[in-house]
Structures are given as structure tokens and as C-alpha cells.
User: Which sequence fits this backbone?
């Protein structure tokens, strides 16, 4: 098994397990004050210590993982639905339809993704749903370009021409003939998009634009800045978890890309 894929998979599964088990391990939720404020890590019963209000940092980290993974995965699925559909239509039909879709894609790409996400969330009431919508809106252009390129390459292949000759409809050709053969790079990109979405959600929460009713790693890092000299773990622990999560997902994405590419070397380039 490829090392990147193995390490990324193990790291990602551990984060998922932590997120799923959060309600069971901490039934009182992340907001409950359970001990003295600012207990250091490795205190009895508090492996990550407590924050300035006496809340369990371990509980906050676990529930933060649940929020981050939910936002990352759901926003990526929404982005793929939009991006794959537009990219498939653009690449298969071409002509004016392609021009309209690509001009719209280029327009969205001229606006910095983070700035657009901040504006969208700030215009509406911050919530998990709004954060997911904002991330989806700013993330679809690369998917459109990738899928369009794959369709432009595949639509002239013999198996597509054969499907046209035997009378298959356009919808069937797009979704049953071309799309399955174009999914390999899309799957690899999707895993990397999950990591980007998690980082973007954390950045929005850091700026106070996250859902005020949920705990997130970005919110924890932001709230711990004022007491860094007294309780560094309040910000450092979620920061480390964010780093591990993004690194694991990136390794997983690269590993999937290598596995789906039969020409990729197993142990790096030949010497």
C-alpha cells in the first residue's frame, strides 16, 4: 500500500472516529463548565486541560471535529454536484453553452475566494448552513474546469462515438459513458477540497463569522488568543488538531491520486 495513502487514511479515520464519538464521550456537550478555569493539560480527567471558563478542551476539540468534518464533507458534495454538472454540460456541448459557463466561471475566479466567503456569510445570519453555502459558492470553478477538460478529451473517443451511432441519448452518454471515465481526477480533487473547506470554515470562525451555537476549532483558536501567555493550550491544541486533519486529508488525496493513476510510481520517481 502507498505510504501517503496509508498515513492519510489512518489519520483521517482517527479524526472521524473522534468526531463520531464526541456525543458519547462528552454527553454534556462542549459548553458545560466542568472544572476550574485554565487547568493545564494532563490534569486528572482533563487530558487537554480547561479553557478560561472551565470548559473541557478535549470536549471542545471533539465537537469541533464534528463541525469541521460536517462542513468540509457537505460543502464538498454540494460543490461537486454543481461543478460536475456544469463542467459536463460545458465540455460535452461546447459552443455558446461552453462560452457562457466558462465566462461565469472566470468571473467567480476573479474574486478572491476568502473575501467572497466572508461577504456572503456577513450578509446573512452566520450559521453552519450559511457557511456551507458560502464555501460551495467559492469552490466550484476548479471542478468545472477539471470536468470540462476531461469531457473535451473523452467526447471524441471511440466508445462515445459508438454510443452515438447506436442511438443513445445525450443524457445517457454524459452520465453513463463519459462521466464514469472522468471521475478519477475528480475524486482526488474532492478529498483536497474537503481540507480546503475545513481551513476556510476555521478562518471564518476565527473572524467571528461561524455559527455562534456550535463550537469550532477556529473559534477556539480565536478565543484563546487573549490568554496565550497563561493558557497556551486553549489555542494550541485545536491548532494542532486542525494541522493534523488537513495534513491527513491532503496525504489521503495525494494517495488516491497516485492509486488512480496507473502510471504513478509506487515509491516515488525512479532513480
Assistant:
Amino acid at each position: 500500500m502507498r505510504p501517503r495513502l496509508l498515513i492519510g487514511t489512518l489519520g483521517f479515520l482517527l479524526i472521524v472516529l473522534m468526531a463520531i464519538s464526541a456525543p458519547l464521550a462528552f454527553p454534556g456537550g462542549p459548553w458545560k463548565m466542568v472544572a476550574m478555569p485554565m487547568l493545564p493539560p494532563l490534569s486528572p480527567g482533563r487530558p487537554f486541560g480547561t479553557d478560561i471558563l472551565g470548559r473541557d478542551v478535549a470536549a471542545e476539540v471533539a465537537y469541533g471535529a464534528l463541525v469541521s468534518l460536517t462542513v468540509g464533507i457537505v460543502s464538498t458534495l454540494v460543490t461537486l454536484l454543481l461543478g460536475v454538472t456544469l463542467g459536463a454540460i460545458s465540455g460535452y456541448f461546447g459552443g455558446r453553452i461552453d462560452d457562457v459557463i466558462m465566462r461565469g466561471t472566470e468571473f467567480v475566479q476573479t474574486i478572491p475566494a476568502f473575501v467572497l466567503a466572508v461577504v456572503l456569510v456577513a450578509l446573512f445570519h452566520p450559521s453552519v448552513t450559511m457557511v456551507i453555502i458560502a464555501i460551495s459558492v467559492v469552490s466550484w470553478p476548479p471542478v468545472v474546469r477539471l470536468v470540462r477538460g476531461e469531457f473535451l478529451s473523452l467526447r471524441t473517443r471511440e466508445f462515445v462515438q459508438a454510443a452515438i451511432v447506436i442511438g443513445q441519448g445525450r443524457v445517457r452518454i454524459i452520465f453513463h459513458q463519459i462521466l464514469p471515465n472522468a471521475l478519477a481526477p475528480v475524486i482526488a480533487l474532492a478529498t483536497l477540497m474537503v481540507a480546503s473547506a475545513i481551513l476556510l470554515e476555521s478562518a471564518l470562525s476565527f473572524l467571528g463569522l461561524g455559527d455562534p451555537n456550535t463550537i469550532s476549532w477556529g473559534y477556539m483558536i480565536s478565543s484563546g488568543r487573549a490568554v496565550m501567555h497563561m493558557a497556551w493550550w486553549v489555542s494550541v491544541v485545536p491548532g494542532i488538531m486542525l494541522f493534523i486533519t488537513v495534513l491527513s486529508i491532503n496525504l489521503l488525496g495525494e494517495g488516491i491520486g497516485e492509486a488512480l493513476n496507473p502510471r504513478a510510481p509506487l515509491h516515488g520517481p525512479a532513480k
Residues 3-40+48-149+189-260 form a domain with the MetI-like fold fold (CATH 1.10.3720.10). The chain has nine helices and no strands. The CA atoms of residues 72 and 194 lie 5 Å apart. Residues 57-93 form the longest helix (37 residues).
